[in-house]
Amino acid sequence: MLLEIAVFNYRSAEIAAKAGADRLELCMHYESAGITPSYGLMKTIKQKITIPVFPIIRPRSGNFIYSAAEFEIMKHDIQLAKQLGFEGVVLGLLKKDNTVDVDRTRQLVTLASPMEVTFHRAFDRTPHAENALEEIIDCGCKRILSSGQAATAIEGKACIGNLVKLAKKRIIIVAGGGVRSSNIQELKVHAKAKEFHSSALTKMELTDGEEIKRIKAVLNK
């Protein structure tokens, strides 16, 4: 089982990698739930961190309904991530009715190749999870990060389990949203996911290496 850690600065990335994280989601601005990291942060991380890193491609906080200019920004940021040699990117685009923006998502997946694309928790705002699942698979995304359309993955564990079942190995469902060492065993049993996502933050908004080790210990049982 794989553990992805969301990090918001270089020090957290360093701590997470040393503590045993399998992959990083690289963001900036925790208070905004993560936006695209700066060029300097991306380049430094790529030079110094050896585990796979997926930068988030999110030009601003708020909703996931992007203007034409914001879409262009996303394309430029994806090209930059590709040039720097990242293994993947994380993104999500919705229409005004909160359904998946299939056309523009497909364009970004094509642009990102050969990097892998994770469709992030914008998925949890879609009105019909099963329809959104099929659309995201059709776009060519490799993963969906989801809390099961609930506030936390524990609350949405039944939905996550259903998504894993419906996916039939066509796409990876990553369980995320309030994932901690205290609830990871319950998620293992009920959500049936093989990949998990956590910020594992301390109260100082810095990655907690000991918490990562505790989560990994449960996953490795």
Describe this structure in words.
The protein is an alpha/beta fold and 221 residues long. The chain has a single domain, classed as TIM Barrel (Alpha-Beta Barrel). It has eight helices and eight strands; from the N terminus they run βαβαβαβαβαβαβαβα. The protein has helices spanning 10-19, 39-48, 68-84, 102-112, 129-139, 157-167, 184-191, 209-219, and strands at residues 2-7, 23-26, 53-55, 88-91, 116-119, 143-146, 172-176, 195-198. The chain has an eight-stranded parallel sheet, covered by helices on one side. Strand 1 (2-7), helix 1 (10-19) and strand 2 (23-26) form a beta-alpha-beta unit.
What's the arrangement of secondary structure elements?
Elements: E1 2-7, H1 10-19, E2 23-26, H2 39-48, E3 53-55, H3 68-84, E4 88-91, H4 102-112, E5 116-119, H5 129-139, E6 143-146, H6 157-167, E7 172-176, H7 184-191, E8 195-198, H8 209-219
Parallel strand pairs: 1-2, 1-8, 2-3, 4-5, 5-6, 6-7, 7-8
Helix pairs in contact: 1-8, 3-4, 4-5
